[in-house]
C-alpha cells in the first residue's frame, strides 16, 4: 500500500536529478506582460496550468495555443500572482479596462464571470465594476446556484486525492476522512493527524467536503487553510494531510506545471490510497509509467472522488440564435453537432493529458445529458427570476404579421433582449428572432395562408421568461364560400352533390372540390366557369343518412372553404314479374318463374307464392330470378301472387295477381 508514496518520491528524485529536463516552469499569466487577448478566463488553479498551456503561455507549450476560426486566443490568468503567490494582487484583462482583484479559485472565478455580466463590483461593493472583463471561468466544480445563466462545459476528468506524509496515512477510508475533517478523529494508526483544507472558494475544497458529507459549517473550524494544490506549505510533517487535485499533483511532480509540491514530495509527501465505497480494496490515484506519474482510470472514474472539471461560459454567448452569441467563445469551447471545440481536438487533448487529466468524449458538450451543467449567477442575494411576459399586440396583414409589444414591469435584473417566434398550426417553426431590448416591434412577411402562433418573451441574464402569445390566421388570398345540396337517392342510382363556390364580387372561383365521408373520399369535381359542379358519387352507398364534407381546395385568388351536407340513400324500388302456365293437370305440379329487377342493382332474397293469405311455395332469387314448383292444385281456377320479401338495399314488392287453371 506504499506504492504511491514510493512512486512520488521516485519521480521527485528523478526530477531533482534531471532538473535540466524537468525544471519547474514558472506560472504564466498571458505573456509577455501587458498582453491582452479576446477570451479572458479566471478562477480555478486546478485547471489554470493546462489552460495556460492551451493559451500558449506555459513554458514548452508556445505552439499549443488554441484559437477560434477568426484567430481569437485565450488569456488565462492565474489564481494567485505568478512568482510571488500573492492573493491580493490585481489583474487587468482589457487594454482600457480596470484593474481588479485576482479571482482565486473556482468560486471566485464564477463570481467574477457573473459580475462581468451584471456590471457589479468584484468581489464586493468595495471592489471595482468588472463589466465585460471576463469571458469564461475555470471551475473544478459544478454550480452552486440553480438557474440557466451559466453553462458548465465539461473539459476533462480529474479526481480529488489526499496528499499525506507518513506511512500511517498510506491508506485511508472515506469514514476516516470524514471524522478527521469533522474534528472527531485525531489519530490514525497511532499517528497524530494534522489536516489542512484549501481556501474558501476553492472548487477542490467544496468537492472534497461534499464527498465527505461536510460543508463549511460542519468542518472543524480549527483546521488551517492553505492555498489549493500547494503541498509545500501543508504536507511538511508526518501526519499532515490535505485534499489535492490528482491532475495537479501529476503535473507538478512530472515537472510540466509550476512547482508548489516537489519539496514536500522529496520529504515523503505522497497521495494516499483510498478505500472507495463499493471497492474491495484501496485504490491508488496514480501509477508510474516510464518514470512518470499517470492517472489510475478506476480512481478517476469512481463517482466518489472522480470529478469533471469545467469551463464556465454565459449560456447566451454560446446560443447561435442569441444577439449575444460569441462565435469565438463557441469555436474554442463548444462541441455540438458537426462542430468540434478547438479545445477538444487531438492536439489539445494531448496537452490536457500532459497535465494529469483524463480525456473524455464529452469534452465541449453543452448537453446536460452528457455531463454539461447549467447554473445561475453566483452573486449571493441576486434576484434569480426571469422577466414576466410583455404585453403583445398582433396585426395580421396580407401575407404578413406585425407584432408590437410593451416591456414587462422591470425585474431586479433588467430585460436584455426579446425572443420572437412564429410557428405554424402543426408546430413547425417558421422563424425565430432575437432582438435587442430597445426593439419592441417585429414584422414577419412573405407568409402563406394559414393559422399561426406568435410568441414574444423577454429575457435577462437569468434566462427567457414566460411568453406572450397570439394565435390567429394570416391570409394572402380572399375568402371563399362553399355551399352544397344533395337530393335523397334510391340505392342503385347515382347520388349527386350540387356544389357552388363563391368569392368576392368579380372573382370567379376555379379549381377542385372534394366530397368526403369522414376520412374517405367519395368523389371529386372541377368547378365550371360559374363556380359550380355536380359531383357524382357511388351508386352503392349504404342505405342510411350520410353526413358529407364538401371541401374547396382554393385557387390562386381564393382561400379554401368547406360545407357539410346530408345525403339520404333509400332502398331501391323493385319490379316483380311472373311467367306461369295458363293451366295444369290436377295430377301435375305447375312451375312459375319470378323475376325481380331494380335500377342499378340485382335484388337478392326470398320470393313467396301466396294463394290468398296462405304461402303455398317459396324460393330464393339467383341473379334476380327464381323458378318455383307449386304443389298440386285441386281442379278449378286458382288466383295467386308472387311477393318479394325485400333486402337491406331493396324494398319488398308483390306482383300482380295471376291465375292458373287446374284440370
Question: Can you walk through the features of this model?
Answer:
With 663 residues, the chain is mainly beta. It has 5 domains: 25-155 and 309-375, no CATH class; 156-307, Periplasmic binding protein-like II (D-Maltodextrin-Binding Protein, domain 2), CATH 3.40.190.10; 391-474, Immunoglobulins (Immunoglobulin-like); 481-570, Immunoglobulins (Immunoglobulin-like); 575-662, Sandwich (Immunoglobulin-like), CATH 2.60.40. It contains 11 helices and 47 strands. Strands 1, 2, 7, 8, 12, 15, 16, 21 and 22 form a 9-stranded mixed β-sheet that branches. The longest helix is centred in the first third of the chain and has 15 residues, at 3-17. It is elongated and about 145 Å long. The termini are far apart. One of its GO terms (biological process) is polysaccharide catabolic process.
Which short descriptors sum up this protein?
663 residues; mainly beta; D-Maltodextrin-Binding Protein, domain 2; Immunoglobulin-like; 5 domains; nine-stranded mixed sheet; 11 helices; 36% strand; elongated; polysaccharide degradation
Task: List the total number of helices.
Answer: 11
* Alpha-beta content class: mainly beta
Show unreliable segments.
Answer: 1-24
Main sheet characteristics: 9 strands, mixed
Overall shape: elongated
Blueprint of the fold:
Blueprint: H1 3-17, H2 19-22, E1 39-43, H3 48-54, E2 74-76, E3 90-92, E4 99-101, H4 106-118, E5 121-122, E6 128-129, E7 136-139, E8 150-164, E9 171-173, H5 174-182, E10 187-188, E11 191-192, E12 194-195, E13 197-198, H6 203-212, E14 225-226, E15 240-245, H7 246-253, H8 262-266, E16 270-271, E17 273-275, E18 282-283, E19 286-289, E20 292-295, H9 297-301, E21 306-314, H10 327-333, H11 346-354, E22 373-375, E23 391-397, E24 400-406, E25 417-424, E26 429-436, E27 441-444, E28 450-460, E29 463-464, E30 468-474, E31 481-486, E32 489-490, E33 496-502, E34 512-517, E35 520-526, E36 532-536, E37 545-552, E38 561-570, E39 575-579, E40 583-584, E41 591-597, E42 606-611, E43 614-620, E44 625-629, E45 636-644, E46 653-654, E47 658-662
Parallel strand pairs: 1-2, 1-7, 9-17, 12-15, 13-14, 32-38, 40-47
Antiparallel strand pairs: 3-4, 5-6, 7-21, 8-15, 8-16, 8-21, 8-22, 10-11, 17-18, 19-20, 23-24, 24-27, 25-26, 25-28, 28-29, 28-30, 31-33, 33-36, 34-35, 34-37, 37-38, 39-41, 41-44, 42-43, 42-45, 45-46, 45-47
GO molecular function: hydrolase activity, acting on glycosyl bonds
Keywords: Carbohydrate metabolism, Glycosidase, Hydrolase, Polysaccharide degradation, Signal
Region (Disordered): 81-108
Amino acid at each position: 500500500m506504499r506504492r504511491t508514496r514510493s512512486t512520488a518520491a521516485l519521480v521527485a528524485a528523478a526530477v531533482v536529478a534531471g532538473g535540466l529536463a524537468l525544471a519547474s516552469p514558472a506560472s504564466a499569466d498571458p505573456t509577455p506582460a501587458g498582453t491582452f487577448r479576446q477570451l479572458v478566463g479566471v478562477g480555478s488553479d486546478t485547471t489554470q496550468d493546462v489552460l495556460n498551456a492551451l493559451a500558449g503561455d506555459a513554458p514548452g507549450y508556445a505552439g499549443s495555443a488554441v484559437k477560434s476560426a477568426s484567430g481569437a486566443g485565450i488569456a488565462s490568468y492565474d489564481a494567485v500572482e505568478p512568482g510571488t503567490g500573492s492573493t491580493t494582487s490585481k489583474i487587468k484583462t482589457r487594454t482600457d479596462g480596470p484593474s481588479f482583484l485576482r479571482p482565486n479559485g473556482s468560486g471566485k472565478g464564477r463570481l467574477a464571470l457573473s459580475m462581468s455580466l451584471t456590471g457589479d463590483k468584484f468581489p464586493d461593493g468595495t471592489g471595482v465594476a468588472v463589466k465585460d472583463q471576463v469571458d469564461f471561468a475555470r471551475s473544478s466544480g459544478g454550480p452552486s446556484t440553480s438557474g440557466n445563466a451559466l453553462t458548465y462545459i465539461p473539459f476533462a476528468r480529474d479526481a480529488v486525492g489526499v496528499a499525506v506524509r507518513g506511512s500511517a496515512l498510506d491508506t485511508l477510508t472515506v469514514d476516516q476522512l470524514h471524522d478527521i475533517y469533522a474534528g472527531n478523529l485525531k489519530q490514525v494508526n497511532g499517528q497524530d493527524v494534522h489536516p489542512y483544507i484549501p481556501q474558501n472558494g476553492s472548487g477542490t475544497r467544496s468537492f472534497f467536503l461534499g464527498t465527505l458529507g461536510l460543508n463549511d459549517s460542519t468542518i472543524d473550524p480549527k483546521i488551517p487553510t492553505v492555498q489549493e494544490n500547494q503541498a509545500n506549505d501543508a504536507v511538511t510533517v508526518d501526519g499532515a494531510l490535505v485534499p489535492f487535485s490528482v491532475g495537479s499533483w501529476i503535473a507538478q511532480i512530472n515537472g510540466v506545471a509550476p512547482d508548489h509540491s516537489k519539496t514536500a514530495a522529496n520529504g515523503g509527501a505522497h497521495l494516499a490510497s483510498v478505500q472507495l465505497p463499493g471497492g474491495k480494496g484501496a485504490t491508488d490515484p496514480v501509477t508510474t509509467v516510464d518514470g512518470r506519474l499517470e492517472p489510475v482510470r478506476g480512481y478517476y472514474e469512481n463517482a466518489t472522488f472522480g470529478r469533471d472539471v469545467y469551463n464556465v461560459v454565459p449560456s447566451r454567448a454560446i446560443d447561435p440564435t442569441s444577439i449575444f452569441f460569441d462565435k469565438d467563445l463557441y469555436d474554442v469551447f463548444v462541441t455540438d453537432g458537426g462542430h468540434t471545440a478547438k479545445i477538444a481536438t487531438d492536439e489539445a487533448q494531448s496537452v490536457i493529458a500532459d497535465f494529469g487529466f483524463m480525456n473524455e468524449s464529452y469534452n465541449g458538450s453543452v448537453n446536460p445529458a452528457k455531463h454539461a451543467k447549467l447554473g445561475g449567477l453566483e452573486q449571493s442575494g441576486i434576484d434569480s427570476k426571469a422577466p414576466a411576459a410583455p404585453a403583445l399586440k398582433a396585426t395580421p396583414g396580407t401575407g404578413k404579421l406585425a407584432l408590437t409589444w410593451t416591456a414587462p414591469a422591470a425585474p431586479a435584473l433588467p430585460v436584455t433582449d426579446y425572443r420572437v417566434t412564429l410557428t405554424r398550426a402543426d408546430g413547425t417553426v417558421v422563424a425565430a428572432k432575437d432582438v435587442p431590448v430597445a426593439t419592441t416591434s417585429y414584422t414577419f412577411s412573405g407568409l402563406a395562408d394559414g393559422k399561426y402562433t406568435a410568441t414574444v418573451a423577454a429575457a435577462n441574464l437569468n434566462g427567457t421568461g414566460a411568453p406572450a402569445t397570439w394565435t390567429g390566421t394570416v391570409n394572402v388570398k380572399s375568402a371563399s364560400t362553399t355551399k352544397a345540396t344533395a337530393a335523397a337517392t334510391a340505392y342503385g342510382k347515382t347520388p349527386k352533390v350540387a356544389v357552388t363556390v363563391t368569392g368576392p364580387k368579380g372573382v370567379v372561383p376555379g379549381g377542385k372540390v372534394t366530397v368526403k365521408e369522414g376520412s374517405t373520399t367519395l368523389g371529386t369535381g372541377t368547378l365550371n366557369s360559374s363556380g359550380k359542379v355536380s359531383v357524382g358519387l357511388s351508386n352503392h352507398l349504404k342505405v342510411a343518412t350520410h353526413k358529407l364534407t364538401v371541401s374547396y381546395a382554393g385557387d390562386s385568388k381564393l382561400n379554401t372553404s368547406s360545407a357539410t351536407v346530408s345525403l339520404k340513400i333509400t332502398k331501391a324500388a323493385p319490379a316483380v314479374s311472373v311467367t306461369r302456365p295458363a293451366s295444369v293437370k290436377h295430377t301435375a305440379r305447375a312451375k312459375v318463374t319470378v323475376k325481380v329487377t331494380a335500377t342499378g342493382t340485382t335484388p337478392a332474397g326470398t320470393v313467396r307464392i301466396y294463394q290468398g293469405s296462405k304461402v303455398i311455395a317459396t324460393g330464393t332469387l339467383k341473379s334476380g330470378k327464381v323458378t318455383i314448383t307449386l304443389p298440386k292444385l285441386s281442379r278449378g281456377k286458382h288466383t295467386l301472387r308472387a311477393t318479394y320479401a325485400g333486402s337491406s338495399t331493396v324494398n319488398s314488392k308483390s306482383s300482380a295477381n295471376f291465375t292458373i287453371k287446374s284440370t
